[in-house]
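Now read the record:
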Amino acid sequence: MKKRVIIGLSGGVDSSVAAYLLKEQGYDVAALFMKNWHDTTGLLQSDCHWEDDLMFAEMVAKKLKIPFHQVDLSKPYREKVVDYMFAEYEKGRTPNPDVLCNREIKFDSFAEEALKLGGDYVATGHYCRKDEILNGEKPISRLLAGIDKNKDQSYFLCQVSQQQLSTALFPVGDLTKGEVRKIADKLGLATAHRKDSQGICFVGKVHLPTFLQQKLKAKKGAIIEIADRTIFPEIEDGLPDEKISEDLLAQMTAPFRFDASFGKIIGEHNGAHFFTIGQRKGMNVGGHKEPLFVIGTDVENNLIYTGEGHSHPGLNRKGLFINREEMHWIRPDLKMDTGENRDYMVRIRYRQPLQEARFFCREKGFYIVFNVPQRGIAPGQFAALYHGDELVGSGVISG
């Protein structure tokens, strides 16, 4: 009897080709379209993106001759993704809603709907791969980077669990984007030349301050420029000794603590919670030879700190810290013990090249120290750990 696969058909070319490949591989394939967002507040284009997506998804399902279903998951999406996003920004943190969307919606709420349709597996158009190994007699699923290094989307799945991964399929992970478009074009799929979606998962490209003002109030505050570069500690390249003390690790990975007395007021903003470290746009302050970047935020006192130029030392840090309860292991069998150290390649944002780092498990939590200082580390981001092509775990940056 054929295994039944429910493909999340989004109206894009990747999931369209994924559906075709699954059918070619002999699966019993059915399509399920998710409607997750209705509101157009803050969208840079006011048209209803989901209606266009639905139309394209239906056309693809008809062309491939597979059953088509749709489900409204807007309630769990708002509760589990958007409300989390608002809460994080209110705290002055920088969340990644796409990571949460995969953990809480695509491989949770959507997977539950797939089960109702008799699905044995859930498939998506993500550019990543999966394989299975044995740990003794126990099967372990591994999440691997996609073949197309320019399009690899494994980072967005850095919070999925073994249970979620065990029933997931990623049919386009062994292909490049160009190969996917060629297949779609050859098949005459309506999505063959459709542009990739941008912005927040299922919401679209937004003007973030306007979007966030649905729940977060705008409030005037000072923009402070930190021009004196002598106040920043010097950061050396190279990995620390594995026997380094926890006190020194805490010093190496702590963010610089700013004070208004360090700089001068150069402008006014509409709310510190609308800004993130490394941000360049939205300050509307002129009179500088080089661009200004946010190098620190203080939501309690409603202040943002800025520095001029790409080379400003306030943009770079040697490491980061992850609270023990916010560390997630995709591979539970690789979970570290207190006092253990390992070398991993680390990514703190999508498309960032992997960075060499040393990972320390200590009493207070996990310390990641990079070989080369990193730009724009912000609390709330996810730090993903790779061993070769495999993504083994991730954690939320706490500071």
Q: What stands out?
A: The chain has a mean pLDDT of 92. Residues 318-397 form a domain with the Elongation Factor Tu (Ef-tu); domain 3 fold (CATH 2.40.30.10).
